[in-house]
Design brief:
Blueprint lengths: L1 H14 L16 H11 L6 H4 L11 E4 L3 E5 L5 E4 L1 H10 L7 H4 L1 E2 L7 E2 L5 E9 L1 H4 L9 H20 L5 E7 L4 E10 L1 E7 L2 H4 L3 H4 L11 E7 L13 E2 L2 H6 L9 E2 L8 E6 L10 H32 L1 H6 L1 H23 L2 H16 L3 H7 L2 H12 L3 H12 L4 H16 L4 H20 L3 H18 L8 H9 L3 H11 L5 H9 L3 H4 L3 H19 L1 H21 L14 E6 L3 E4 L2 E3 L2 E3 H6 L12 H8 L14 E6 L11 E3 L5 E8 L17 E5 H11 L3 H6 L2 E2 L1
Parallel strand pairs: 12-22
Antiparallel strand pairs: 1-2, 1-6, 2-3, 3-10, 4-9, 5-9, 6-8, 7-8, 9-10, 10-11, 13-14, 13-19, 15-16, 17-18, 18-21, 19-20, 20-21
Helix pairs in contact: 11-13, 11-14, 11-17, 11-20, 16-26, 17-20, 17-25, 18-19, 18-25, 19-23, 20-22
Bound molecules: arginine (ARG).
């Protein structure tokens, strides 16, 4: 089995010549040998491709994990210790926080293994291997097929590949599309489900600078946290039980699997040093066309920003007034604010960097290429026309669709909760068996408990009333969810009145009423609740979106697939990397300062002195814990200071990352950990659509600052002791 992979890899290696350049590009680890090794080594890397990604021996990739399905984490000790970002752990930290034990504010440190906190919803996945399955997936596909038939044939092939592969160990199997449906790869993962919180700094360290500094350089944020992977005593994955033990190399090898933990370097970085980042970038749109950029700039981005402005104001008002609400909504607020600011920066960047015009230039070139021969003409001739048509059709519905998602589905908590709870209640009512009924009831109760734990009815009511009023005023009536008509008829179109009645009466909006209702649910009554009426209507509209835009969606899929295929044929000497899609990637480049604006120069690293300069006592973003101020006064940095005696906090490098990479390891030329990546910079916020070599930077937290906080600030020296520090 293994031999076969080697032969295939070798054949690919010998067949294709390559040119790639560092910094831009999120590369598939499986192809490093063929595409990147020479270039990486020229840039300084001292490891071989086989030491980075191997399916025959332990390699660097075995230290990299999917964290919870939304971030990246890496193994940093022989006993399953994981490093990721503070903002990736935010939900988990919040879930363990209360007014008495406010870990969000004060931080949390397990001083021994028994204090490490379980998180039932968290998991990490390790990539076992990936494979090119393009030929198998496209076997029954031809150019003559309609987009719908094509989709069907592809799905059937994917299902059979998955079934076959799934029989191996209990691996999780994914098959993903690359280059907009031109290539397909399979990924096998092993999932661990007992992931315990080990440590997190206070938010004044882990989220220092808050929304003001978010997406910005110069930065001074200790955006890190630590977890530990637990498994059954025999080393196999298991959900939480007291008997579980930390995952170790020995246990892993006993199960014929590989284990790697990253050695940690105290050397730090200098300008132009080689760095690489490994992880799971979620999504980029580098092949977006000019029509897509226009729609984003004119409709989608401003609509999202405008809606979120209102959402955030309402949240903040209630959070400021009530400390309990502040904890309950901490994560929701941070998540909403993160992409609110993202879309503001993205639009600015797209305009300033002329991305629309650059896309038009590429399309003009493509048009020439598509007309160079009859063969090209018949294959690529209609690609751009299809894309243009698709966007001109969806331009009509985009604003309504954005409202439907940002206000309808996600604007308040009641809509999705009602939808899911209703689903479970219906199942409960349809179940006769007494035991099954009890189990469903239990499930429903714990689902509701989790929901109401982070729910404030007054806040949700105000959001409902004001956000839906905005929806009503700004979206053309033809695109309103059906219950708007009901609000017109029974409440004179007044969402405030509708909300007042709904939140006062509905069992979906109050935990006690909810628990009372589900002990003797009644279908007739249920359908009359205003929360049910609103939720049901919104969800119906949402599901209807697909068929509303079915034709445009098909045109866009065909157009994009042909466009990307043609682009690659048009420039055969250039190696195009695929868009991010939450599969493992590596990106490499160098540490580097930059010029954000005329006459302005930004250095590549920040210090604790600089962090102190930003200190504003009592401020919700720039306050600092007493203890950190004292350590700074005493200049007590231990072995974590640099050669000048400064403590480096953050640094920047021109690697190519995006959301999902959060928590990713930053690794030096020797394969040692030097930081954790947590953000991008303001001047290149358009980077998910067009990479800007001169401007785009990854912002990372220096590992020495991480160790300083763990050791000097928290006194969690037992954690330092289990790591491999290299001096
Ligand atoms: N912008 C970062 C990212 O998306 C998240 C940073 C979280 N910090 C914050 N202040 N909200 O990866």
């Amino acid at each position: 089995m293994l031999k076969k992979f080697l032969v295939v890899a070798l054949a690919i290696f010998m067949a294709i010549p390559t040119i790639v350049k560092a910094d831009e590009g999120m590369w598939l680890p499986m192809f490093i040998k063929r595409l990147n090794e020479v270039d990486m080594q020229a840039a300084g890397l001292q490891l071989t491709a086989e030491e980075l990604y191997s399916i025959n021996q332990s390699s660097l990739k075995d230290a990299i994990a999917v964290f919870g399905g939304f971030c990246t984490a890496e193994v940093i000790s022989a006993e399953g210790l994981l490093l990721t970002n503070h903002h990736c752990a935010y939900d988990a930290i919040q879930s363990h926080s209360s007014l008495e034990n406010d870990y969000l504010t004060d931080g949390f440190w397990a001083m021994n293994r028994t204090d490490e906190l379980a998180n039932p919803d968290l998991y990490v996945d390790f990539l076992i291997r990936m494979e090119d399955v393009t030929d198998r997936v496209l076997k029954e596909v031809s150019d003559e097929l309609s987009e719908a038939d094509r989709k069907k044939a592809i799905q059937e092939a994917i299902n059979s590949i998955k079934n076959e592969a799934g029989e191996e160990n209990d691996y999780i199997v994914q098959v993903k599309s690359f280059y907009e449906g031109n290539e397909f790869y399979m990924f096998l993962y092993e999932r661990f489900q007992d992931i315990r919180l080990v440590g997190a700094p206070p938010s004044s360290v882990g989220k220092y600078g808050g929304d003001t500094d978010n997406w910005m350089w110069p930065r001074h944020t200790g955006d890190f946290s630590m977890f530990r992977i637990y498994c059954a005593p025999d080393g196999t994955p298991a959900t939480y039980t007291e008997e579980n033990v930390p995952l170790t190399k020995e246990l892993r090898e006993k199960n014929n699997a590989f284990y790697h933990h990253l050695p940690i370097s105290l050397e730090g970085v200098s300008n132009e040093d080689f760095t690489m980042v490994w992880g799971y970038p979620g999504s980029t749109d580098r092949y977006l066309t000019s029509w897509g950029v226009r729609q984003l700039l004119d409709i989608k981005a401003p609509t999202i920003v405008d809606i979120r402005d209102l959402k955030l104001n309402i949240m903040k008002k209630h959070m400021d007034a009530n400390p309990k609400v502040r904890i309950q909504y901490a994560s929701k607020h941070a998540r909403t604010a993160n992409y609110w600011k993202y879309f503001i920066g993205q639009s600015k960047g797209l305009k300033r960097l002329g991305v629309y015009e650059k896309k038009q230039d590429i399309e003009a070139e493509f048009e020439v290429f598509a007309n160079t021969s009859e063969e090209h003409q018949s294959k690529y001739g209609e690609a751009l026309g299809l894309i243009e048509e698709a966007y001109s059709e969806t331009n009509e519905t985009e604003k309504g669709a954005t409202f439907l998602s940002e206000v309808g589905v996600r604007g308040t908590d009641v809509v999705l909760f009602t939808y899911r709870a209703n689903h479970m209640i219906t199942k409960l009512m349809g179940t006769e068996d007494a035991e099954a009924k009890l189990a469903l009831l239990d499930e429903l109760k714990s689902f509701a408990e989790a929901h109401f734990k982070n729910y404030n009815a007054a806040l949700d009511e105000e959001q409902f009333a004001r956000l839906f009023a905005k929806y009503q005023a700004e979206v053309t009536p033809a695109q309103h969810p059906s219950f708007f008509a009901y609000v017109d008829k029974k409440f004179k179109g007044d969402f405030q009145k509708y909300a007042a009645k709904m939140y006062a009466k509905s069992f979906f909006t109050d935990e006690d009423r909810f628990n009372a209702f589900i002990t003797s649910p009644n279908a007739k009554k249920l359908a009359k609740y205003l929360a049910y009426i609103a939720s049901n209507s919104v969800i119906q509209s949402y599901f209807g979106l697909g068929s509303l835009n079915a034709e445009a969606t098909e045109k866009l899929a065909t157009g994009n697939r042909l466009f990307v295929d043609g682009l690659r044929k048009m420039n055969p000497e250039k190696t195009y990397y695929p868009n991010a899609n939450f599969s493992m990637r590596t990106t490499y480049g160098t540490v580097g300062d930059y010029i954000p604006a005329d006459a302005v120069h930004y250095d590549y690293e920040t210090t604790l002195d600089g962090l102190m300069e930003k200190f504003v006592p009592g401020d919700h973003e720039f306050d600092l814990p007493e203890r950190l101020i004292d350590l700074h006064k005493a200049q007590d940095y231990g072995p974590y200071a640099d050669e000048n005696g400064d403590l480096i906090v953050n640094f920047i490098h021109n690697t190519d990352i995006t959301g999902g990479n959060s928590g990713s390891p930053v690794i030096n030329a020797k394969g040692h950990l030097i930081g954790t990546a947590f953000d991008g910079n303001w001047e290149a916020m358009s980077g998910d659509i067009a990479f800007e070599s001169e401007l785009q930077r990854t912002i990372s937290c220096d590992i020495r600052y991480v160790l300083f906080i763990v050791d000097k600030y928290a006194g969690a020296t037992h954690l330092i002791e289990e790591m491999d520090l290299v001096y």
